[in-house]
Amino acid sequence: MAENASYVGTLAIENSNPFISNIKIYNNLNGGGIYCNTSTSIFRNIVLQGNNNQYWTMSDVDPAIYSGNSKILFENTIITDYNADRDGGILYSQGSDISFINSTIAGNSVSNECSSILLDNNSSMIMINSILWNKAKYDIKFGPEFSNSVDIAYSNVYGSQEAIISNSMSAVNWLDGNINLNPLFVDTANHNYHLSSKSPCLGAGIDSIQISDIWSYAPKKDLDGNLRPDPFGSRPDIGAYESQLFTDILENGNELPLIFSLYQNYPNPFNSATVIKYSIPNSSRVIIKVYDILGSEVMTLLNEEKETGYHSIDFNESDLPSGVYFYRIQAGNFNDTKKMILIK
C-alpha cells in the first residue's frame, strides 16, 4: 500500500518483467499511479484510487497508468476517483498491448472533450468482463496518426460506440456479450464498487474467450479473494468483484434466486445419469435441449412454464454413446450453454 508517495508514477517499472499483486496505491499527488516502460508485466488484485499527479509533465498527461512499449495484463483491478483534465487521464498507452480482465474503471472524472483512455503509436487494448463507466464524454480515444485497436467482450462500457473517438486507421471490435447499462454499484460515494443485487453485470461475464488466437480466462478468485464464479457452474460477473448473493441466499435461508443461472451438471463426467440445475428469478417458459459434438439436437429435456426458484432435471439416457454433449437453456431472454461428458 502506498500513500502520498513522492516518486513520479508511484510504482515505476522499466526494462523488467514483474508479476505484482495485492497492492493499493491511493491519494498520491506526485505520482499518477503506475508507470511502465519497455516491460512485460502482470498486475493482479490492484486498487488505484485518487492518485493525481500535479507535477508530472511528460507528454502533458498525468494518467493513472502510463505504458510505453510494454505488454501489460490487469486482472481484478479497480481504478477510481481520478480527476483528469487531459486525454488519457486514466490510461495513456504508447506502442503497448494492454489487457483488462475482470476490472472496474469507474467513478473517474474527465473534463471537457477529453478521454479516459488514450491509445497511441500502434497500441492495442483488450477488455473482457470489465466495467468502463466514468464521468466522461469519451472513454476511449485513438491517436490521430497511428493504427490502434481495441477488442471488447462481455464488458459494460458507458456510451458504447458513441464514447469512442476513432480514426480511419484504427479498429474497434465489439465482440459478444457487451452491454451499456448502469452497473448499479453498492455505494460509489463511499468508494464501494461491489455490485448491487439489481446490477445488470451479475452473471453477465464469460469464463474463457479466444481473441486473435489467444485464450483469456476469468481469474478464479475476485479482488476480495472470493471464488469466481458464484455459484459454481454459473457465469462470472462483470467487474473486479464477484457478487456473493448466492452465498448470502444460502446463509439467510432465502430460496428465491435473483438472477438467471445454468449450473454445471453433476457428476461430470458421468456414466448414463447426471443432474442439471438452473435458477430463474421470475416465472418463465424454460427450454433445455441437448446437442452432440456436431451441434445436432439430441433431445429436448424440458419445455414448460416454471415458477421462480431453483430447479433441477435428471438426464438419464443409457442409449447414447460416450462422448461430449452440450446442454442449452432458454428462459425469457436468458440463454446459456454448458458442456458435459458421457463416459461408459
Number of helices: 1
* Radius of gyration using CA atoms only: 22 Å
In round numbers, the mean pLDDT is: 86
Helix content: under 10%
Question: How many β-strand stretches?
Answer: 30
Q: What number of structural domains do the residues give?
A: 2
Note down, in words, how this protein is organized.
It is a single chain. By secondary structure, this protein is mostly beta strands. The protein has 2 domains: 2-245; 255-342, Immunoglobulin-like (Sandwich), CATH 2.60.40.2550. The strands form 6 sheets. Strands 1, 3, 5, 7, 8, 10, 11, 13, 14, 16, 17 and 19 form a 12-stranded parallel β-sheet that branches. Residues 1-9 and 54-60 have low confidence and may be disordered. Helix content is 2%, strand content 48%. The chain contains 1 helix and 30 strands. The radius of gyration is 22 Å and the shape is elongated. The protein has one helix at 245-252, and strands at 2-3, 11-14, 19-26, 34-37, 40-49, 65-68, 71-80, 83-84, 91-94, 97-101, 104-110, 115-120, 124-128, 131-135, 138-142, 149-153, 156-157, 164-165, 171-174, 185-187, 192-195, 208-211, 214-217, 261-262, 273-280, 284-292, 297-306, 309-316, 323-331, 334-342. The N and C termini lie far apart (54 Å).
